[in-house]
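re: the backbone from monday

yeah here it is again, tokenized this time
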């Protein structure tokens, strides 16, 4: 009895991740996950700057957009999201950064 490999949405994303890490070993480290139903590859860059996300954008293409601000540990934070398609796989990479403090100007 032969077992036929049934393609899953996760397979393409997993293969794309292996290729990404092999071809671009110097990109900033990220935590990766693959959505089991859509096959979207998601990365989260921890303890980084906006420049880390732009490195991914320069290698993979796509556009970076800000997300919605949210409070975390007494600070306002803003996610910045790169959305692209790489090797026929939807990829999202996110870095969360503190929102710059606005300096109040005396009237």
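seq for it, each position gets an aa:
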């Amino acid at each position: 009895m032969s077992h036929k490999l049934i393609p899953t949405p996760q397979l393409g994303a997993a293969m794309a991740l292996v290729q990404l890490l092999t071809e671009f070993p110097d990109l900033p480290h990220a935590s990766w996950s693959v959505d089991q139903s859509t096959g979207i590859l998601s990365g989260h860059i921890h303890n980084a700057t906006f420049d880390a996300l732009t490195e991914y954008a320069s290698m993979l293409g796509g556009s970076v957009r800000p997300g919605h601000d949210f409070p975390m540990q007494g600070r306002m934070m803003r996610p910045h999201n790169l959305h692209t398609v790489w090797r026929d796989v939807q990829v999202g990479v996110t870095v969360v950064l503190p929102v710059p403090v606005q300096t109040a100007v005396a009237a």
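Residues 30-98 form one domain. The longest helix spans residues 9-23.
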